[in-house]
Amino acid sequence: MIDPCEKCEEMMQPFVDGALTEEERREAEAHLAGCSYCAKRYRFEEELRHFVRTAAAEEMDPRLKEKLAALRTPLE
Amino acid sequence: MSETTPDTNARRVAQEARDRVRFEEEALALADQVYRVARHLVGNREEAEDLVQETYARAFRSWRQFTPGTNLRAWLLRILTNLNIDRGRRRQRQPDVQPLEEGDYFLYNRLEEASPDGTIDEEHVVERLSQDDVVTALSVVPHDFRDVIVLVDIGDFSYADAAQILDIPIGTVMSRLHRGRRILKREMAESATSH
After folding, report:
1. What does pTM read for this prediction?
2. Where are the alpha helices (DSSP H) in chain B?
3. A69 contacts on B by Cβ (under 8 Å)
4. What residues in B contact A51, CB-CB < 8 Å?
5. B102 vs A: CB within 8 A
6. Do B32 and A60 touch (CB under 8 A)?
7. Could you write out the DSSP letters of every residue in A28-64?
8. Nearest CB to B154 within list A13, A56, A73
9. Ramachandran region, residue B168 (left: φ > 0; alpha: ψ -120 to 50; beta: rest)
10. Could you read off the pLDDT of A7-38 as tens digits, one per residue?
11. Around Cβ B1, how many Cβ atoms within 10 Å?
């Protein structure tokens, strides 16, 4: 029999993506309600995704924006 | 049949100029978001800036090919990823190198093991990671996987948009995203536990 925590680990990405079927989601939620080991790791996944998004966001140099605007077709 | 008089012709030209100006303004308003994605598709800031400029030069030339009402941001990114491949910035795939991949709990487990007393304040686990850990880890994820992570997890594109931008099936987007995130987490674990 497959270890329920291993199964839960497999379901984590589609769970957070909202890509599980209704039945799979209920199964994962039932396991998470009684398993703090998995529940902690699921919470971490959600925080991690947010962190990756913000950490990777690098502001554009304002001079690049000016260069892009200069590429516009001149008005006749 | 209506005649094309100088008057109707002038109106047509004026309308086209207005459409073009609106297109250019809408495209420029998306530049920050386009840059953010470009920055992690290529190796460094200069390359990303060049790529964004080439993208806008091409977009402004071929603006008539854009269908108004469709997703302009995805249209721009499609141009950008094609240019990126055409210009050979994308290193050739190394078919023999299989990226190492661990399970989805790997990063958390490693952070927990690496904490001084073996326990972890679960509210603040993510704070053990630095911005550099993310940027460094992303840069070593192989391109095929990185492209989908950058589009979906950083650029906030849907699976369907990412599939269209990269010209790959949606199932491939999902499987690359799944594996790519695992590779990314493994690399972040390496980076975070080595300093």
Report:
1. 0.88
2. 6-29, 31-41, 45-61, 72-86, 106-114, 131-140, 143-149, 159-166, 170-192
3. 28
4. 126, 129, 134
5. no
6. yes
7. HHHHHHH-HHHHHHHHHHHHHHHHHHHHH--PPPHHH
8. A56
9. beta
10. 999 999 999 999 999 999 999 999 999 999 99
11. 3
